[in-house]
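Thread: adenylate kinase, structure

OP (GT): Posting the sequence first so everyone is looking at the same thing. Length is 310 residues per the record. Can we get the structure tokens written out before standup tomorrow? I want them in the notebook alongside the other entries.
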Amino acid sequence: MACLSNLSISVSRPNTTISQSPHTSRPINVSIATTSQSQRFKPCCSSSRSLRSDPQHSLGRKFISHRLITARSSATMESTMDVVPLKIMISGAPASGKGTQCEFIKSKYELVHIAAGDLLRAEIASGSENGKRAKEYMEKGELVPDEIVVMMVKDRLIQKDVQENGWLLDGYPRSVSQATALEELHIRPDLFILLDVSEEILVERVVGRRLDPVTGKIYHLKYSPPENEEIAARLTQRFDDTEEKVKLRLVTYHKNLESVLSIYNDVIVKVDGSLPKEEVFERIDAILSALCQKKLKTDSTSSFATGVAH
């Protein structure tokens, strides 16, 4: 997702004037000479998607690329585009609702969603060099080394769609070695979202999960029960969705998490993941919107000053 400043442009008479509101949140109007046509860039477009059918819960506006038109002189004009994409990491324990929140964030902000596991499988399927190296370890029943996964993430983050739209890194890094490797490559998020859910609730969510082997749909005996008895009769439980095993997974998760958080301490925001999923996203949305506005304000001020200096 890229942020767009409130900047409008009209082309009309043979003169150049720049007027700026004393309040940085107000639009900047720039009139620039030309001979025949006029055009206006609108700051944003409305989203038709919503989390609920109630219009009060509409996902609202999407930010798009920040376009800056800089006047080089009274006779000429150069047009440049400064894209300010968001860079977000999100972490959460098993059953914290991280996957659901990633879908909400991706839907509204149009960030490129990157999950290390999906990336690993895609690289192997494509037959890339990193994929071939990873496959060798997996075929031997060994864990894929961090340096291979980190390079996969790096290669994905430099692709055009990510550079233009920003990224949402899902559940990665998971260890201090992975986080340190990303830091060395100068890959750092604007924000690290941590979904905070108590162990009691996490265990309840995991133990109650059931899978429909026919449709692949996931149910929960308490929170999302099957529609009828026929479906209920065929539901199965994953072998590791037991209280004993989920508690072991949580021990590993929290052990690794503490070391990762120490690296991102200055950009971490904790969100209560025990709330209903819509309420969780409302809080995340407010945080991301504020971050985007902050980036816009900083970039707009910097770009305007640069344009005037020239």
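GT: Both are above now. Quick notes for whoever picks this up: The CA atoms of residues 8 and 131 lie 46 Å apart. Residues 4-82 have pLDDT under 50 and may be disordered.
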